[in-house]
Specification:
alpha+beta, 24 helices, 25 strands
């Protein structure tokens, strides 16, 4: 069950909660999702989790937030700022009071107003053996400043740290709201039709088989089949495609689509929890749990980085006064405090997870579901892309174009035998043969039905043994036949051991297939390959039409897996990846075997969503280059943030160590670089990639 962690506004806090929760039996694999403030855990372990969170981060609560409202926090910051301004402007007068009591009163009031939470958190963590985090750094730096009577600096450090935290929380929440807005496709109600009346209910209350009414402009709440009405629906929330789609009686319709002008009556075919919109939301929300290598590195890096900085500051405070002539402890302690302030790792631990989650959100807006930040990273390193042919590069909509009988059989006799033999098959070719036959087929006429993978069908129809399949099936069964290769996809038919003829099935290449291949080449993909179980002549024609670098035909399912493994072995190094793009249903073994498994046309397909790492909700090959562009843009921004944070901090560390930078500059640098990194990460949300119009294919 998913729970919200209200009051979670610190990425290092999220990492700490996750680390402690994993020590609880049954929660070894739990993941705290900082990007959307959530975690999944069994309800029976909720009390144990609540106890851990209360111990580790008391400001975070699974049910009710205990953090201050942003407005009240802003008032506190303003009051503290006013006190700091008074203490700074009138510092000499205040300092001349007996024992400088006025200076201490004004500046320490400012200090404690904004710093009490930092101080109490640092003390609480110290009692639990957690010595090194940003609260500890701020506490040591400010107490050190007070000890050497740098009261304005101490109050300023705490005030500007509070200001930074305030703006950081607002920026993070803004990013969360932006991502939530991208995914705001959850229907709020359903118009349930009962006994001639309609009643507005929650989508979760509607059962399979019940009827709902969708009025013009409303969002479709559940997956179903249209039983009455004609309308155009906006599918952009699911596919990223703004072109309206016509739906009428007998057609499927999916939750999340927006109805146009017509009134639709729909028979529900799936409960809300299994609907397309619910699965999409769940996928995107869970995606942040799969961390990219960069995120994992930063998490590990920050664990060792802070202790190293504290030891470095300690060395800077102690060693130079002992070895350098004329050096004073107060000067080098001050420089060490600058080092502590500037070294806070917030910019890295906040902006990087936010950047990846933004990339996942931007992809989902384009109808591309990426199941984790690790797969976004993998998309940036693609060397080879392998496409399945049928349903991926071609439309997969087959139609019979020719029926050629042999050995005294008639056309209608040949077509009837093939249609009856294929009665149980869900393959598009089988469906096209049954459509061409156009008559009802009584299943009682068919017996001993058997599918032969990679070959075809064997069945007994009206007492006669019928074989329907490819040329390999004829050779396997020892059927003498004059024609082996036909122009197009050929279904060879044998009746009682005699070759009865063949049926030619034609498929059409998708309009944007060549444009997608060209765009992949522009993006630097080194090798593009097509795999198919179809015959050599058909494969060669499609390969030439779309422009792939190589193709392999007449492959059985296990042959496709072997070919993908062979192509993976040929990759230049481990950092380069291979993606396989298929329909997600018949290609599940290959999708699973590839470095990045991509299912195309996942709209309404359970198998596609389950098997793949990336799901393209629309049957459009051009979505793959767009996914790669979004992944590269995300990776670029993440690298920018790493370089920005480390570069600025490194620069000010050097300035601080040589006494050029003061604590004031250190605070501005720390807060500034954190906010800059966060706002830079939010740029990903608006990225839509570059598309190539189908007519350029």
């Amino acid at each position: 069950m998913r729970y919200t962690l209200e009051g979670l506004d610190c990425a290092s806090c999220a990492a700490r909660i996750e680390r402690e929760l994993r020590k609880v039996k049954g929660l070894e694999q739990v993941t705290v999702n900082f990007a959307n403030q959530s975690l999944d855990l069994p309800p029976e372990l909720l009390p144990a989790a609540r106890e851990v969170i209360a111990r580790v981060e008391p400001g975070v609560n699974i049910v009710d937030t205990t953090s201050q409202r942003p407005e009240s926090q802003l008032y506190i910051i303003l009051v503290a700022g006013l006190l700091l301004a008074i203490g700074f402007i009138f510092n000499q007068q205040l300092h001349r009071t007996p024992y400088a009591w006025a200076e201490y009163t004004i500046l320490l009031s400012s200090y404690f107003l904004v710093g009490w939470r930092v101080l109490t958190t640092a003390v609480r963590n110290l009692t639990r053996g957690q010595f090194f985090d940003e609260n500890f750094l701020m506490t040591i730096a400010t107490i050190g400043a007070i000890a050497i009577h740098q009261l304005p600096e101490a109050a300023a450090v705490m005030l500007f740290y509070a200001v930074g935290e305030y703006f950081q929380e607002r920026a993070v929440n803004r990013s969360r709201r932006s991502i939530a807005a991208l995914l705001d496709i959850r229907p709020e109600f359903a118009n349930l039709k009962l006994k001639g009346e309609t009643k507005q209910v929650r989508p979760e209350e509607v059962e399979v088989g019940q009827t709902i009414v969708v009025k013009p402009g409303e969002r479709v709440p559940l997956d179903g089949e249209v039983v009455e009405g004609v309308s155009f629906v906006d599918t952009s929330a699911l596919t990223g495609e703004a072109v309206p789609r016509k739906v009428e009686k007998g057609e499927k319709i999916l939750a999340g689509m927006i109805n146009g002008q017509g009134l639709l009556t729909i028979k529900v075919t799936r409960p809300f929890g299994e609907s397309s919109v619910a699965r999409i939301l769940e996928l995107v929300e869970n995606a942040a749990a799969r961390k990219a290598p960069t995120e994992q590195f930063i998490t590990a890096f920050s664990r060792y980085y802070t202790p190293a900085v504290v030891l470095g500051a300690l060395a800077l405070a102690i060693i130079p006064p002992l070895v350098l002539p004329g050096a004073t402890f107060s000067t080098w302690v001050y420089r060490a405090l600058v080092l502590l302030v500037i070294s806070c790792p917030c910019a890295l631990v906040v902006s990087i997870p936010l950047g990846y989650f933004g990339g996942i959100g931007a992809a989902s807006r384009q109808g591309i579901l990426v199941k984790g930040a690790n797969f976004l990273d993998a998309l940036t390193g693609l060397h080879t892309v392998v496409f399945d042919k049928t349903g991926t590069l071609t439309k997969g909509v087959f139609r019979v174009t020719q029926v050629v009988p042999y050995n005294g059989f008639q056309e209608d006799e040949l077509l009837a035998a093939a249609a009856a033999a294929e009665v149980y098959s869900s393959h598009p070719i089988a469906q096209s043969i049954r459509t061409a036959y156009g008559q009802e087929i009584d299943p009682e006429r068919i017996g001993e039905y058997r599918e032969i993978p990679g070959h075809g069908i064997s069945a007994v129809v009206d007492g006669k043994r019928v074989l329907a399949g490819n040329d390999r099936l004829m050779h396997r069964e020892g059927i003498a036949h004059e024609v082996c290769n036909v122009a197009g996809t050929g279904v060879h038919v044998a009746i009682d051991g005699t070759f009865a003829g063949y049926i030619v099935i034609s498929d059409e290449v998708k309009s944007d297939a060549r444009g997608a291949i060209n765009r992949l080449k522009e993006l630097g993909i080194k090798k593009i390959v097509m795999l198919t179980g179809d015959e050599e002549a058909v494969a060669r024609r499609v390969a030439e039409e779309v422009g792939v670098d190589a193709y392999f035909a007449e492959l059985l399912p296990e042959g496709k897996v072997a070919k993908v493994e062979e192509l993976q072995a040929a990759l230049p190094d481990r950092r380069r990846k291979l993606a396989f793009v298929g329909d997600g249903i018949n290609d599940a073994p290959v999708i699973t075997r590839a470095d990045v498994g991509v299912a195309m046309g996942g709209l309404g397909s359970d198998a596609a969503i389950e098997a793949a790492d990336v799901v393209l909700m629309e049957d459009a090959p051009l979505k793959l280059p767009m996914a790669i562009e979004i992944a590269r843009h995300t990776s670029c921004i993440v690298r920018q943030n790493v370089a920005l944070a480390l570069g600025v901090k490194g620069f000010f560390l050097v300035l601080g160590a040589f006494g050029v930078a003061t604590i004031w500059e250190a605070v501005f640098a720390d807060v500034g670089v954190t906010l800059a990194a966060i706002f830079n990460a939010t740029r990903i949300l608006g990225y839509g990639g570059k598309t190539v119009p189908p007519e350029q294919a």
